Amino acid sequence: MNTFKPEGYLLNSLENKSRTRSRAALADAIAEQHILEAKAVLCDSAHNLWVDLGCMRGMIPRLEGAIGIEEGNLRDIAIISRVGKPVCFVVTGFQSDEKGEYALLSRRAVQKECLADYITRLTPGDVIDARITHLEPFGAFADIGCGLPSLLPIDAISVSRISHPRDRFQTGMDIRAVVKNVEEGGRITLSHKELLGTWEENAALFEQGQTVAGTIRSVESYGIFVELSPNLAGLAEPRDDVYVGQQASVFIKSLIPDRMKVKLIIIDSFEACVLPEEPRYFFEGEHMDRWQYSPESCSRVIESVFEPQE
């Protein structure tokens, strides 16, 4: 049985290398309908995608490039943009041209199988693998299986607010995410903040009296919000010499679980080039029904509830 992962997961696996090592191995893959991967090296003038199989060339005809191309609801840029990147496919046969024999491949067939046997079976609260494909001001798009995209809205990326998804992610980054909604046709919306720990789990990483590193996320008239971790920010007193995006050294004045507050004093602020780090996940299970960020002692309840959809 095939398993469905974001494109690129299979590329360097022993199984994939074995199944693309020769024409005979590719012929065997036809009968078994194994999902394989290779790097796309060229998109020709007819928007057929050519891949390097190692043992021979492979061609994904334009209409087999992705679900939606034949139907007319997906633009050809979805194929063109795969050049230089891994693509998944099944082998459907062999043909020849003036350059010799090449394998006929279908990415669309893999996506249809992934949609039917995996994505449409997901339910809210399922925790899945995803790979960031591109970033927009309103959120991050991620491959959740065989090149099929899902949206991770910016407000679902972390509890600590960010100005752009690039503050958290880089293109190509592998993450875990929670299925938030499943719409008709298999369209998935994701969330991420639930995996990054509760207020108490994040606060436990710090102690009153410590001076630690942070990132200035918001400058308000009443104070400066400084992020200590993706799911924990504290408030420092107002000052005029700081701005959003700066790094800061901050003194932890107090941690107050009952009010979900972290009081800080900014010791210094400065410019620094800081790349997004691999996320640290506190939840490692495969499904969650409910997640409560706020401490039990806090009167204000912040939670996510994942309810089954009909």
From TrEMBL:
Residues 125-193, 209-235 form the S1 motif domain. InterPro entries: NA-bd_OB-fold, Ribos_protein_bS1-like, S1_domain. Gene3D superfamilies: Nucleic acid-binding proteins (2.40.50.140). Keywords: Ribonucleoprotein, Ribosomal protein. Belongs to the bacterial ribosomal protein bS1 family. This is S1 RNA-binding domain-containing protein. The lineage of its organism: Bacteria, Bacillati, Bacillota, Clostridia, Eubacteriales.
